[in-house]
Amino acid sequence: MAITSQDIVALERHLTDLKKQLGADYAAFGESCALIERQRTLGCCRDEWQAYETCLESVTELEKVCAKQKRRLDLISDKKGRIRQTEKDLQLAARQRKELAGRLGAVAYEAYQSGVADEALRAASATWFDGYLKETQRLETMLLKGGVVASWARTRLSLLRRRTGALFQHCGEDFLDHDQCSLLPDAHLAEEASLLVSRQQELTEDLAAARSNVSSLQEEVDNGKKALEEAKSQLSVMQAKLQQLASVYGKAVYDQIPPDVIARDVGQIAYEQGLAIVQRLDAIAQTQQRIQSLRNQMQIDELNAQMELDNQKIAHLEEQEQAIEQQISEVQRSIAERRRKIRDLSGADHG
To answer: Which of 279, 270, 280, 268 has the alpha carbon at shortest distance from 250?
Structure first.
């Protein structure tokens, strides 16, 4: 079957796809290596990694911007429904805050009464617990006296301890209001408090935006869409750049670090990604060889076709040559016949 230019074009398209896939392979490999580079250096390609990391930070920030713009646009586009939902979210956050405040107060109390609180925490907690502890100690001392005094002290102590939950609650609220949760010895609880306060602030801002003047709703929608599209456009550009930088970094690491080192220092996933790159490179080489082979065969076919035409021309010329020779022979015979007649006529005159 004859080779056509369409066969080569189809393979060239396939080669283009393979090269794109190779770029994606390098990018995936680079992303895996970048994760390890953040923890411990692989000893090479730091400039490529730093360029990737810088771009990744920009992409992360733009993703946050897009998410925020979309959230705001959703709020504007469906104000009533979003207002109700945000109010519910705020109510949930308020319940979570109340429960969290109690735990914060309990942690502060435990640190204060056990003596492990530092000076700053003691100063922040004294208002809430100093009087409570003194009163508790006074009543516990009265219990030792027995009789009516002990009975009265027991009742008072029971009432006092019933108010412990409210005391913890008010203390925790105070810590939340004055951003003092970081003073507590429980870092995880302090982080939870920070996230909840941020969430409440964000919801409050969203609610205020949703309740803005209804007359400006369409203008807000238009502005929100414009801002979101601009952010998406910037994000798309940066994501493409990030993919390119990941590919550059991945290729640089692939070219410099042997597979066994990748398996040991980066992990099995990166090792398998490296094998995928090898397979893709082989496929590209085979396709390039196939394209060149088809081009050569196409040229051979063209040369054979030209030679066939030339042979046909030769055959045609040979046929013409035979016809001409035949015509010459016929003319020569005619001339000979005429000469013979001349000789015969000349001999008749002499006789």
So the answer is: 270
Rounded Cα gap, residues 102 and 98, in angstroms = 7
Q: Can you tell me which residue has the tokens 């550059």?
A: 248
Residue linked to tokens 């490179």:
281
**Alpha-carbon span 39 to 218, nearest angstrom:** 48
User: What pTM did the predictor assign?
Assistant: 0.47
Q: Which residue has the higher pLDDT, 336 or 74?
A: 336
CB-based contacts of 47, cutoff 8 Å, min separation 6: none
Q: Which residue has the tokens 């640089």?
A: 252
Residue 156 in any domain: the answer is: yes
For 64, the 3-state DSSP assignment is: helix
pLDDT bucket at 80, cuts 50 / 70 / 90:
low
pLDDT class of 213 with cuts at 50, 70, 90: low
Give residue 199's domain range.
43-255
Compute how many other C-beta atoms are within 10 angstroms of the C-beta atom of residue 91: 11
The token duo for 193 is 């408090």
Which two tokens mark 170?
């008010």
The total domain count for the chain is: 1
pLDDT in tens, 290-320: 999 988 988 888 898 899 999 999 999 999 9
Is residue 209 within 8 Å of residue 167, measured between CB atoms? no
